[in-house]
Each structure stands twice: as C-alpha cells, then as structure tokens.
Fold this sequence. Notes:
By secondary structure, the protein is an alpha/beta fold. It folds into two domains: about 10-120 and about 210-225, Response regulator (Rossmann fold); about 125-210, Response regulator (Rossmann fold). Helices cover about 40% and strands about 20% of the residues. It has seven helices and ten strands. The chain has helices at about 20-35, 55-60, 75-85, 100-105, 125-140, 150-165, 175-190; strands at about 10-15, 40-45, 65-70, 90-95, 115-120, 195, 200-205, 210, 215-220, 220-225. The strands form three sheets. Strands 2-1-3-4 form a four-stranded parallel beta sheet, with helices on both faces. A three-stranded antiparallel beta sheet has the order 5-9-10, with no helix packed on it. Strand 1, helix 1 and strand 2 (about 40-45) form a beta-alpha-beta unit. The two termini are about 15 Å apart.
Amino acid sequence: MQQKNIKTVAILTDIKSRVSESYGKGVAPTFLKKYGVKIVEDINFVTEDIDFSAQVTKVKAANPDGIVLAGEYAPSANIAREVRKQGMKQPFLADVPTVSPEFIKLGGEAVEGTYAPTDFWAGNPDPKVQDFVKKFKQEYGQDKDPHTTTGCFYDAVYAARSIVGKAGLSGKPADLQKDREKIRDGWANLKDYVGDATGKTTIDKDGDAWKAFYTLTVKSGQWVKAP
Length: 227
C-alpha cells in the first residue's frame, strides 16, 4: 500500500467459495480499514462466472487505486484480463488460492505484478520444501507445481499421523468414542508441528491454524517473494 500509494480499493468477491468469501468480506476489509484504505466498490460474483465485463465497468467508474481479487485462480485471472482489456493499470492484491501456476497461465501479462499471501510457496528454497516439490513433480508431471492447498493437505495428513501415533488409541470398537476424543484433543493441542511443505503449525484456542506465510508477487511469469 505504501509502495503503490493505495488509498482506495475495489473488492471483487466470489461469494460461492467459503474461503474467498471469508477473505473478501472479512479479512481484507479488516486490514484495509486498519491502514486507512477506503473501499469504493464491493462487488460479488460466483465461481462459474466467465464474463466479468459488467463488474469491471463498475470498478472502472469508481477508479480505485488498487483492486482486491477475492477468488479462485480461474475467475481471478479472468477478472484481471478484463481489467487490462478495459485499459486499467491498477495493481492487484489477490487471495491465497491464486498462488498457483494456473493463475499465471490463464492471466498471462494481465497478472504481472499481482501480490498475494500464501502459507505454501513452491519456490521456497528450503530443502524440505524442494524435496516435496520434487516428489510431486515425479508423481504428477514435471510441468506441474503443487498448489498451496496441496502443501497444506500434505502436512495435515502427516500431522494427523503423528497425533494418532502419540494418542495411545486402543482400536477397539468399545473405545471408539474415547479414541475419537484423543485424536480431537491431539489436534486441539498441536504446537509447533513442523511439516515438510509449510513449516510450523500451531492450533490456537479457537481451532485455527497459525502458520508462517509469505507475500508473493508475479514477476516475469513466476511467483516470487515480494521485496
């Protein structure tokens, strides 16, 4: 916001996606307000939308300093292309699900300079992350990078395995409820679990995961760490 001198924004939110709706209606407005940024347009769409000309025309009329894309990678890329098609130059702040090679493939030049937060970054030089990426490519193809969801699920599976291993489960039908409670308590008390893909995870009192995150930007067709 300081680098781009952003005082006003338009937010476009996929209200059919719970993740994107949470970002566009809750997370983004909260931090924008904190930093004194005014929301001049708050526009909804749904995941299946393809033509965004009407929504972008409204954004153009509002002439914000920046545009928040709260959506999955496909509609967000389509919005970005329409924004550039209508001659707008504003920078994009996107949602976590856009951090994928597909966003760049679909958006092309239109998404250059986009910023987005993520808890998984395929380009992370950490040896554990690169080993995970290597295994993924061996399984699914050298031209594919794992998505942030892939990295999170990978670590979640191994976290569950660790919890089950430490819980002392009996495995007996009569103890099914007790075993379930032990697993639940194991998750509730998870602290500093180190996964290969996303690093440390801690579950707080509300059941939310606290993780390291990165702010990335699209540069020369690649997601890289923002300066």
